[in-house]
Amino acid sequence: MPTLQLSPTVEEYIFGINNVLRLLLVETAWTGALIPLLILLFFLSTPAGRRKPIFIMNAFAVVMGIGLGSFNIHNKVTAFKLHPGNPRKTTLLAHSGMLFLMPVAMDCILAYRLTAVYPRHATPNHLLATIFVPIALFKVTRIINLAIFLKGLSNALAKSKYGPSISPGDFESLWNVPYLKVEWVLQVIDNSFEQLYISVFPVAVVEGPITRKDLQGYIIIQLIIIFTHREYLLVADILVTNLYFEIVCVVFATIWAMKTSTEVEAQVDRGTYPPGSTDYGGDMVFALPTESGGTGSVEDGNSIHNHDSSAHFSRWVFPCRA
After folding, report:
1. What confidence category does residue 201 fall into, taking pLDDT thresholds of 50, 70 and 90?
2. Which end of the chain is more exposed for a tag (fewer CB within 10 A), N or C?
3. Residue 148 CB partners (closer than 8 Å, separation 6+)
4. Cα-based torsion angle of the residue sequence 159, 165, 170, 174 in order, rounded to the nearest 10 degrees
5. Residue 269, helix vs strand vs coil
6. Helix %, strand %, coil % for the chain, to 5?
7. Rounded Cα distance, 69 and 322, in Å
8. Is 143 helix (H, G, I), strand (E, B) or coil?
9. At 10, is the secondary structure helix, strand, or coil?
10. CA–CA separation, 308 vs 128, rounded Å?
């Protein structure tokens, strides 16, 4: 039975379509999931909550995720009509910049939540410096490292012999430079440092159904794959998935916090908040024993609500700026 022989041009075109289609499906699914998530974020928030920095940062993250997905979907659909195997230089540079810098922005949102655990008005300055100066240095180092990578990528694209496009071989050689591996190693260390200060806090902290440890686990999996696999397209799929998963986790943590905060405030107003309880939501709630028995108190930043406490605890509710 005779076999059909395809020309090299047709084979390259089919190979390019397969790669573009796989990434297109991943980005379309995640972008579509962010739209109802953005609606849910606004639906479950209050007018006062929408003015908080953490809500603004979360909404910005979701909008950026939708924008990144829409940008890539448009470019990949356009690529079907042109050269699916050779992405355009300007498109690749813009895509890479957003794809690699957005995780840093997501980690900044997660780091900002530490201000709920260590509020400025209740934490010594030296402890604040010990916590937040290294976190800031990690973020600056990661941004500088990615800026060097993007500068090298821009220079390599300018020297490419493929005119406005770049070949898969050229892109694979750029993918294997050490800057990306350095970024992901720094991300693991950065997140571990922040998790350390949450875990050593002397009270139980409930972050919600998805914690920072879950995010860190996915980053470690990504690191293992980047060190053991040479297929950059597979790593690109995982990188895109991790980015959108982190956006979803950050938003769900905020929604969980708003829900918990509302329940805590309602219990405090009714005087039914459980004695000795600790919880973490939009606010940070922790318990300390009073020197004398009798009545416990709960402070919401503006007023004190007194009620009987059999465990003789004073509980402070610090309004969460995160």
Report:
1. low
2. N
3. 179
4. 80
5. helix
6. 70, 10, 25
7. 27
8. helix
9. helix
10. 34
pLDDT at 144 over 70: yes
What band does 208 get if pLDDT is binned at 50, 70 and 90? very low
pTM: 0.68
Q: Tell me if 278 sits within 8 A of 285, measured CB to CB.
A: yes
Who's near 259: CB < 8 A, 6+ residues apart?
44, 281
Q: Looking at the DSSP assignment, which residues form a beta bridge with residue 285? A: 279, 317
Report the distance separating Cα 150 and Cα 160, nearest Å. Answer: 15
Residue 229 φ then ψ, to 5°: -115, 140
The answer to whether residues 258 and 45 touch, using CB atoms and an 8 Å cutoff, is yes
CATH topology assigned to domain 8-258: Rhopdopsin 7-helix transmembrane proteins (1.20.1070)
| 151-160 burial code (b ≥16 CB/10 A, e <16) | eebeebbeeb
Residue 220 identity: I
So where are the chain's domains? 8-258, 265-318
Supply the pLDDT for residue 171. 58
Q: Determine the Cα–Cα distance for residues 84 and 75; give it in Å rounded to an integer.
A: 10
